[in-house]
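yo, HNH endonuclease is done. seq:
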Amino acid sequence: MARKHSKHAFHDDEPQDEDAPAPAVPCWLCGRPTGKTIVWHHPVPKSRGGRDVVPMHAICQQTLIVNFTNSELQRHGMDVEALLANPTVRKFVDWVANKDPDFTATIAKKRR
Ligand SMILES: [Zn+2]
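structure:
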């Protein structure tokens, strides 16, 4: 957190320090800042022994869940580029790029 060290009298009443939001964490999948809700996603599913978590939007996590099986997620692991190579995921990321960080929608589950 970079703060100005100068302690001059002027500008002292600016409330920006207390109101400044915590620095936004970028989403692992789409790279946008996360909104009010941060989902801590296991790139390798917990049921497959995954322990690492990454910050994500709920909608981005949902996209992974509906487009990949646990086995695929386990295989790709932390390799987000491999996930983005999926055309459906790529399309989603391009589409969601201009949405509000707190934007959510129901991602239709593909019938397999
Ligand atoms: Zn995201």
